[in-house]
Each structure stands twice: as C-alpha cells, then as structure tokens.
C-alpha cells in the first residue's frame, strides 16, 4: 500500500475527525435500533464500521437527548458492554430518519475521498508477457497474440475485440479479466455520500474481499476494505440506465452504476451491438468519459457531480466495428484486436487438443474426412469453437451407445448433422 492511500484511509480518532456529518451516522444508528431492538456497542461497530470511540461519543449524545437508554449491561467492560434500547422519542426520530432513507449499513465516506482513492489506485500492477501468455495458454491462438492485448492491460485504457463468432473473443476477454482480478488489490468503501444522499458501491457479485497481513491493514478506517480488482461483465442484457445512478424509491438510496463498480478494474461489454439499447446511445453516453476519464452524474435533487472513469473497458463484438460505431468513437478506443478464424493448421491443433480434453483417441483418417466432407465440399468456414462442440457430440453419442470414446467417419457425420443447421454452404 502506498503512503498516499495509507494517509487517506486513516480511521477517525474522534467525532471531530469524522469526515461525514454526524447526523448521517445518527440516522443509521436510530434505524438500526428501531429495526433490531436492543443493540450492543459491538453490533454498532459491526454494522457501521466506525471505531468504538467515535460511536461512543454519539451514543452519549443520544442518551443526553433521551433518544436511547441503557436497560442493562452484558459484562464488565464499561460502556462497550452496554445494551442500548430506543425510547419513544427516539422512535419518532427514527421514523423521520426512515423518511429520508432506509439505508442501514457501513457509514459512507465522502465522494471526494472516494475519488482521490480511485485516482491514487488506478494504476494496476503491470503484467509481464510471461503472465499474459500463461493466462492464454489454454487457448490455441496465433503466435505473439499476447502482444495485441498485453499493452492494453497495462495501459488500462480501452480495447475492442472483434471478429466472426465462435473464435474465442469472450474467452480471451475472460482470461484478461482473470489477469486484472489477480494482479493486485484495491481499497474501496461500502458506500459513498454526496449532498446527504447515499450511493451503495459494494456489490457482492463484483467485489471479492481479500484478507492479508498488510502492516497497514489494522490502521485503516474500517469503512474501507481490501478487494481484488473488480471485474464487471455485461452482455446483451445491458441497458442504458445501468450506466447511471439507480435510485430505489422505496429504500431511498442509490445503487452505483456498473462503471463505478468497475473503477480500478475492468468492464467487459460482451456481444456489443446486441444490447436492448442502440449502440449509438452507449457511444454518446461514454464518448466524453473515454476521452477525459471523468464521468458525470446527477442526483434527483438536481445536484451534479463527477467521479473518475478509471477502468479497462473491453468491447467484444461479432459485428463489423466500422458499421457499428463511427470514427470519432473508434479513435477513443486505444487498441483494436481482430480475432480471426483459424486456418487449417490451427484448426488441426484445436481438434487434437480437444480430443485430449474429451478423452477421445485422435484418428487422422476421421479428421481428414471431417475436413473434406464438412468443410471443403460445403465451403463451410472454420470456427475455433467447432472442434470442441463436434467432439462433445461424438462423446455424447458414444456414451449413449455404451461404447468407448472413439472417432470414426460415421460418428463425425452424425455429430455434425446434429450440430450444424444444414450441411450446405453457410
């Protein structure tokens, strides 16, 4: 951890050091008491992730205001062992707090502090050519293919993967995602606040907690946790409103947009061009952030604010980029990589490798038969996915017949008839 981050994430030593308005914390505490009933100081620490000293100052204030009381103690640890219950007056205040928001969770951090943390942690640990090649080693790709994507990984800018379907674009992007997630870690808060509003950043599907023995870990504000670099993957289900703040009118707080959840990591938009929105709508939404690395948002109150747009954006598409997007957008994508169809030599390597993976003895005559009957004669084009899928069909047929896995022209024919829509030229 850098000294900059360590100094930014120091825990508050007292209520005066707290970087958010005490009223925000009081509202969360009253909502917790109202919801759970008698609550211990340890429970307040667990939920709000604030030091006991800060919480105790607030608890003393709430007692003085007759909003809470201490019905009993659970031990001999002084105020830390007290159980707190909410008074009738406190319940009235809690109802007012629920009108403002129903958020109950870790105390938020100011947006300004979140922005600084992202900017200071935006540069990931660089990946070496050896690590990139290792990450792609399970794929059969042209030599030096790693040189196309390695620079994009290290620059953390943007990448366009394009080419015909079934040749590994998604698998390549997923391998990149694994590299990003395993490269190093990032410190993130559970929620941020601006203008008295809450934005929940944490997503258990995206943020993977890391436990280390970092010398700074015990000195960090507990509202911040250490995670693997986030990776967000979205496909045809992506909608334009997923890229903006989403306000829940019942819970009365915001969920962070997908690109905010991906900050410091990677955002893969798979099958680009097949979304429910028009590609031009996404391009118009992101053309400025891609150029400036700053994103802009508006709260329901009308207040606008900005935050960093710092993630590796990967677009994967089967469509022609020149027909899908305009030159202005393509200029903002730093790296464009075409994932082409395999040639016959590469197709052979793929087929032989898939035979090993499916425990099917390779038979040269059957492979030549496949090429002649199902590709050369029909004009069908090779796809990298074909060997895997055809051999899965062969294995399924062998299993159905109760015979050992084997490769014959007859099994090739039957598997291909089942797999391809028609034997004619595609």
> What is the strand content?
15-25%
In CATH terms, the superfamily of the largest domain is: P-loop containing nucleotide triphosphate hydrolases
Radius of gyration equals: 28 Å
Can you count the beta strands?
A: 17
Walk across the major sheet and give the strand order.
4-7-8-12-11
Oligomer: single chain
Number of helical segments?
17
Overall pLDDT confidence: 89
CATH class of the largest domain: Alpha Beta
The largest sheet, given as strand count, sense and whether it forms a barrel, is:
5 strands, mixed
Roughly how many Å apart are the termini? 55 Å
Please give a structural write-up.
The chain is of the alpha/beta class and 426 residues long. The protein has 3 domains: 85 residues, Winged helix-like DNA-binding domain superfamily/Winged helix DNA-binding domain (Arc Repressor Mutant, subunit A, Orthogonal Bundle), CATH 1.10.10.10; 227 residues, P-loop containing nucleotide triphosphate hydrolases (Rossmann fold, 3-Layer(aba) Sandwich); 76 residues, Helicase, Ruva Protein, domain 3 (Orthogonal Bundle), CATH 1.10.8. It has 17 helices and 17 strands. The strands form 5 sheets. It has a 5-stranded mixed β-sheet. A 5-stranded parallel β-sheet has the order 10-13-16-5-17. A hairpin with a 2-residue loop joins strand 7 and strand 8. It is elongated and about 90 Å long. It starts with a helix and ends in a 7-residue tail after the last helix.
